[in-house]
Amino acid sequence: MQAIMEPIFDIGYLVSVIVLGVLMLRRGQGAERLFGAMAVTLGAGDSFHLIPRVAALRTTGLAAHAAALGVGRLVTSLTMTAFYVLLYYVWRRRYRVQGRRGLTAAVWLLAAARAALCLLPQNAWTSPNPPLFWGVARNIPFTLLGVLLMVLWFQSAAGGRDKGFGHLWLALAVSFGCYIPVVLFADAVPAVGILMIPKTCAYLWAVLIGYNDMKRRLSVQ
Protein backbone atom coordinates (compact mmCIF):
# COMPACT_ATOMS: atom_id res chain seq x y z
CA MET A 1 0.00 0.00 0.00
CA GLN A 2 2.82 2.43 0.87
CA ALA A 3 4.40 1.81 -2.54
CA ILE A 4 1.20 3.10 -4.16
CA MET A 5 -0.23 5.76 -1.87
CA GLU A 6 2.97 7.55 -0.86
CA PRO A 7 4.19 8.17 -4.45
CA ILE A 8 0.76 9.58 -5.35
CA PHE A 9 0.87 11.89 -2.33
CA ASP A 10 4.47 12.98 -2.94
CA ILE A 11 4.05 13.71 -6.64
CA GLY A 12 0.77 15.51 -6.01
CA TYR A 13 2.45 17.70 -3.41
CA LEU A 14 5.44 18.54 -5.61
CA VAL A 15 3.32 19.38 -8.65
CA SER A 16 0.92 21.50 -6.59
CA VAL A 17 3.60 23.55 -4.84
CA ILE A 18 5.67 24.17 -7.98
CA VAL A 19 2.66 25.03 -10.16
CA LEU A 20 1.28 27.45 -7.56
CA GLY A 21 4.71 29.04 -7.23
CA VAL A 22 5.08 29.48 -11.00
CA LEU A 23 1.62 31.03 -11.21
CA MET A 24 2.57 33.53 -8.52
CA LEU A 25 5.81 34.35 -10.33
CA ARG A 26 3.89 34.99 -13.55
CA ARG A 27 0.85 36.82 -12.19
CA GLY A 28 2.04 38.30 -8.92
CA GLN A 29 3.69 41.56 -8.03
CA GLY A 30 6.06 42.65 -5.29
CA ALA A 31 5.89 40.34 -2.30
CA GLU A 32 3.67 37.94 -4.26
CA ARG A 33 6.40 37.18 -6.77
CA LEU A 34 8.91 36.65 -3.98
CA PHE A 35 6.41 34.29 -2.35
CA GLY A 36 6.20 32.44 -5.67
CA ALA A 37 9.99 32.11 -5.80
CA MET A 38 9.84 30.77 -2.26
CA ALA A 39 7.24 28.16 -3.25
CA VAL A 40 9.27 27.03 -6.26
CA THR A 41 12.36 26.76 -4.03
CA LEU A 42 10.35 24.61 -1.62
CA GLY A 43 9.07 22.27 -4.32
CA ALA A 44 12.33 22.04 -6.26
CA GLY A 45 14.29 21.34 -3.10
CA ASP A 46 11.86 18.72 -1.82
CA SER A 47 11.99 16.96 -5.18
CA PHE A 48 15.63 16.01 -4.53
CA HIS A 49 14.42 13.89 -1.64
CA LEU A 50 10.92 12.85 -2.69
CA ILE A 51 11.64 11.77 -6.27
CA PRO A 52 14.39 9.31 -5.19
CA ARG A 53 12.02 8.15 -2.44
CA VAL A 54 9.27 7.50 -4.98
CA ALA A 55 11.73 5.66 -7.21
CA ALA A 56 12.90 3.56 -4.27
CA LEU A 57 9.37 2.65 -3.21
CA ARG A 58 8.49 1.64 -6.75
CA THR A 59 11.61 -0.51 -7.25
CA THR A 60 13.88 -2.22 -4.71
CA GLY A 61 12.87 -0.41 -1.51
CA LEU A 62 14.19 2.42 0.63
CA ALA A 63 17.07 0.50 2.20
CA ALA A 64 18.66 -0.13 -1.20
CA HIS A 65 18.73 3.60 -1.98
CA ALA A 66 20.18 4.97 1.27
CA ALA A 67 22.88 7.04 -0.45
CA ALA A 68 20.55 8.74 -2.94
CA LEU A 69 17.98 9.43 -0.24
CA GLY A 70 20.68 10.87 2.02
CA VAL A 71 21.95 13.25 -0.62
CA GLY A 72 18.36 14.26 -1.28
CA ARG A 73 17.81 15.01 2.40
CA LEU A 74 20.94 17.18 2.41
CA VAL A 75 19.73 19.22 -0.56
CA THR A 76 16.26 19.52 0.94
CA SER A 77 17.74 20.68 4.25
CA LEU A 78 19.60 23.49 2.48
CA THR A 79 16.64 24.57 0.33
CA MET A 80 14.31 24.54 3.33
CA THR A 81 16.72 26.96 4.99
CA ALA A 82 16.53 29.17 1.90
CA PHE A 83 12.73 28.89 2.06
CA TYR A 84 12.69 30.51 5.51
CA VAL A 85 15.12 33.24 4.52
CA LEU A 86 12.87 34.09 1.56
CA LEU A 87 9.84 34.02 3.85
CA TYR A 88 11.55 36.61 6.02
CA TYR A 89 11.92 38.92 3.03
CA VAL A 90 8.31 38.30 2.03
CA TRP A 91 7.39 39.53 5.51
CA ARG A 92 9.56 42.63 5.11
CA ARG A 93 8.05 43.48 1.72
CA ARG A 94 4.45 42.80 2.65
CA TYR A 95 4.59 44.98 5.75
CA ARG A 96 7.09 47.49 4.34
CA VAL A 97 9.55 46.87 7.15
CA GLN A 98 12.53 49.21 7.15
CA GLY A 99 15.77 48.91 9.06
CA ARG A 100 15.89 46.28 11.82
CA ARG A 101 19.41 45.23 10.88
CA GLY A 102 19.77 43.18 14.04
CA LEU A 103 16.78 41.07 13.07
CA THR A 104 18.12 40.55 9.54
CA ALA A 105 21.51 39.60 10.94
CA ALA A 106 19.86 37.05 13.26
CA VAL A 107 18.00 35.46 10.32
CA TRP A 108 21.17 35.15 8.27
CA LEU A 109 23.22 33.93 11.23
CA LEU A 110 20.74 31.15 11.99
CA ALA A 111 20.52 30.21 8.30
CA ALA A 112 24.31 30.14 7.96
CA ALA A 113 24.65 28.02 11.12
CA ARG A 114 22.07 25.58 9.81
CA ALA A 115 23.79 25.31 6.41
CA ALA A 116 27.24 24.89 7.98
CA LEU A 117 26.02 22.14 10.29
CA CYS A 118 24.29 20.35 7.40
CA LEU A 119 27.51 20.35 5.36
CA LEU A 120 29.67 18.76 8.06
CA PRO A 121 30.79 15.23 7.09
CA GLN A 122 29.81 13.99 10.56
CA ASN A 123 26.18 14.02 9.40
CA ALA A 124 26.92 10.87 7.36
CA TRP A 125 24.07 11.67 5.00
CA THR A 126 24.64 8.63 2.80
CA SER A 127 24.76 6.17 5.70
CA PRO A 128 21.79 3.85 6.32
CA ASN A 129 22.01 4.86 10.01
CA PRO A 130 23.13 8.50 10.33
CA PRO A 131 23.91 9.69 13.88
CA LEU A 132 21.01 11.12 15.84
CA PHE A 133 23.23 13.72 17.52
CA TRP A 134 23.92 15.56 14.26
CA GLY A 135 20.31 15.26 13.22
CA VAL A 136 19.37 17.14 16.38
CA ALA A 137 22.27 19.60 16.21
CA ARG A 138 21.59 20.82 12.68
CA ASN A 139 17.92 21.31 13.49
CA ILE A 140 18.51 23.60 16.46
CA PRO A 141 19.25 26.75 14.42
CA PHE A 142 16.61 25.68 11.89
CA THR A 143 13.97 25.44 14.61
CA LEU A 144 15.01 28.80 16.05
CA LEU A 145 14.72 30.33 12.57
CA GLY A 146 11.26 28.82 12.16
CA VAL A 147 10.09 30.06 15.56
CA LEU A 148 11.39 33.54 14.75
CA LEU A 149 9.37 33.60 11.52
CA MET A 150 6.28 32.30 13.31
CA VAL A 151 6.52 35.14 15.82
CA LEU A 152 7.02 37.79 13.13
CA TRP A 153 4.05 36.60 11.07
CA PHE A 154 1.87 36.19 14.15
CA GLN A 155 2.63 39.72 15.30
CA SER A 156 1.96 41.20 11.86
CA ALA A 157 -0.93 39.11 10.53
CA ALA A 158 -2.83 37.17 13.21
CA GLY A 159 -5.96 38.36 14.98
CA GLY A 160 -7.49 39.95 11.89
CA ARG A 161 -4.58 42.34 11.28
CA ASP A 162 -4.03 40.73 7.87
CA LYS A 163 -6.87 38.40 6.89
CA GLY A 164 -5.01 37.00 3.90
CA PHE A 165 -2.03 35.80 5.92
CA GLY A 166 -3.62 35.47 9.35
CA HIS A 167 -3.01 31.72 9.54
CA LEU A 168 0.45 31.52 8.00
CA TRP A 169 2.10 31.38 11.43
CA LEU A 170 -0.14 28.41 12.28
CA ALA A 171 0.89 26.52 9.13
CA LEU A 172 4.52 26.99 10.16
CA ALA A 173 3.75 25.88 13.71
CA VAL A 174 2.01 22.71 12.49
CA SER A 175 4.94 21.88 10.21
CA PHE A 176 7.47 22.15 13.04
CA GLY A 177 5.16 20.43 15.51
CA CYS A 178 5.12 17.41 13.22
CA TYR A 179 8.75 17.60 12.10
CA ILE A 180 10.52 17.75 15.47
CA PRO A 181 9.11 14.42 16.80
CA VAL A 182 10.27 12.74 13.58
CA VAL A 183 13.81 14.07 14.08
CA LEU A 184 13.90 12.94 17.70
CA PHE A 185 12.02 9.65 17.70
CA ALA A 186 11.60 8.20 14.19
CA ASP A 187 14.66 5.94 14.49
CA ALA A 188 13.37 4.38 17.70
CA VAL A 189 9.68 4.43 16.76
CA PRO A 190 9.34 4.27 12.96
CA ALA A 191 5.58 4.88 13.14
CA VAL A 192 6.34 8.48 14.16
CA GLY A 193 7.42 9.02 10.55
CA ILE A 194 3.77 9.27 9.55
CA LEU A 195 3.86 12.82 10.96
CA MET A 196 5.68 13.83 7.79
CA ILE A 197 2.30 13.70 6.03
CA PRO A 198 0.65 16.52 8.03
CA LYS A 199 4.01 18.35 8.00
CA THR A 200 4.00 18.28 4.19
CA CYS A 201 0.33 19.30 4.10
CA ALA A 202 1.17 22.28 6.33
CA TYR A 203 3.72 23.54 3.78
CA LEU A 204 1.17 23.14 0.99
CA TRP A 205 -1.29 25.09 3.15
CA ALA A 206 1.30 27.87 3.56
CA VAL A 207 1.75 28.10 -0.21
CA LEU A 208 -2.02 28.12 -0.74
CA ILE A 209 -2.33 31.02 1.71
CA GLY A 210 -0.07 33.12 -0.49
CA TYR A 211 -1.69 31.99 -3.73
CA ASN A 212 -5.26 32.61 -2.50
CA ASP A 213 -4.28 36.07 -1.31
CA MET A 214 -3.01 36.87 -4.79
CA LYS A 215 -6.23 35.53 -6.32
CA ARG A 216 -8.30 37.81 -4.10
CA ARG A 217 -6.28 40.81 -5.24
CA LEU A 218 -6.66 39.88 -8.90
CA SER A 219 -10.41 39.30 -8.53
CA VAL A 220 -11.05 42.90 -7.46
CA GLN A 221 -8.95 44.55 -10.16
Q: How do the helices and strands line up, and which of them pair or pack?
A:
Layout: H1 2-27, H2 31-58, H3 66-94, H4 101-119, H5 132-157, H6 168-185, H7 196-219
Helix pairs in contact: 1-2, 1-7, 2-3, 2-7, 3-4, 3-5, 4-5, 5-6, 6-7
Summarize, please.
This protein has 221 residues and is an all-alpha fold. It has helices spanning 2-27, 31-58, 66-94, 101-119, 132-157, 168-185, 196-219. Helix 3 runs antiparallel to helix 4, helix 4 (101-119) packs antiparallel against helix 5 (132-157) and helix 6 runs antiparallel to helix 7 (196-219).
Q: Whole-number average pLDDT?
A: 93
Q: Considering DSSP H and I runs of 4 or more, what fraction of the residues is helical?
A: over 70%
Q: Beta fraction of the residues?
A: under 5%
The N- and C-terminal alpha carbons lie at a distance of 47 Å
Total count of helical runs of at least 4 residues: 7
- How many strands appear in the DSSP assignment? 0
Sketch the topology as an H/E string, one letter per element. Answer: HHHHHHH
Structural class determined from secondary elements: mainly alpha
Shape from CA axes?
A: globular
The largest sheet is:
none
Low-confidence stretches: none
**Whole-number radius of gyration?**
18 Å
